[in-house]
Please model this.
Amino acid sequence: MVMANMIGTGVFTSLGFQVGPLPSGFVILMLWLLGGLVALAGAFCYAEIATRIKRSGGEYSYLSEIFHPGLGFASGWISIFAGFAAPICAVSMAIGSYFAPVVGLSSDSQIMAVSALSIILISGIHLLGVKKGGGIQNVLTAVKLLFILFFCISPFIFSGYTPSSVSFAPQAGDSSLLWSSSFAISLVYVYLAYSGWNASAYIAGNLENPKKSLPFSLILGTVIVTVLYLVINATFLYVSDYSELDGQLDVGNVVALKMFGEDYGKVFSGLFSLALISSLSAMVIAGPRVTESMGEDHKIFNVMTKKNKGGSPHFAIMFQALIALVLLYTSTFEDVMKYIGVALSLFSTLTVAGLFVLRKRKTNEESAVRTFAYPITPIFFILVNLTMIGYVFYDDLNNSGGKVLIISSITILTGYVAYYASKALGKQMDGKLD
Model:
């Protein structure tokens, strides 16, 4: 679940937006290593938080109990959009771009149709039931991991191409790149690639032994993915130069076509698409658990708790798919990526800050898993995320007129409006029942 959520859109698309402002193999690998360390720090903190607050729903459940139900509702609200529907939209865009060479698609409308079809198809599969959807998810994840491992050793097996001139050793000027605004802004794309490190926290209430399995899945899943990400990006840069990758959404296709030629490259394009479908599937599983948890607490969303015979929250799945389809036809890939990165990092930072509150209250001390290197670990996570958010908003205000800031603020504000509206309607409904 953790690995399937993490390995997807970000790692197969982000490099094309990083090599332009950060033309250094060493700096790019440090960028991905830092992203892994931040995700691992978050995983350590979430392992303790999730074993103190034993409920599915992720940030929605945690922030509601730690701070205020309104803040929890706002985080759940933004999770519906930025946490799952927007990433589903982004991964579907990537699926369309990667799949296009396989069947010879060229027009934007055709690629968009493939993206929309992937959302509808995978959501439909998970409407069949928890066991069937989970079984398909396990198969997709296994195929994805095997494919990535094969792809990463391919440059050393096949020799019919000229490797790039990219060096991974530190170069003159790397230190200034490491402390530049471009490095901090590029971290947004890396953060998106690592988003999903907290995936099993969303289904904590469905685990048989959360104290044992939850920390294990969060930490081990994050470590494995960090290593894979470093190897995948090193592979991309080993094969293709900066100029070949710069601005490319489907960097995997660029590398595969160079290594294997057009015919075999198409086969790899199809496999990349399959790997991305695994990520889309994992998000379709996790996302509805947030709306389901909100429905348990707020009568206005009670319909989201309804399950079909297979145990799937079918209304929540369909609602999520509808939002993703709307975003698909109204947003650009870069806008979606920045929106996701900022929104998710904001609420995960608030959640990790809540660990200090839970420690002070001594909530469920007997069942809690202790965070490694506390308080250094949560402080590190909070500082890196706040720095990244600050740089993104500064860049957004100067270059995009504050577009990301405005959209993020509107989403959070409407979340609070919806919260108080649901409370008012809930009281009305209780009064009528009385």
Summary: Residues 251-297 form the longest helix (47 residues).
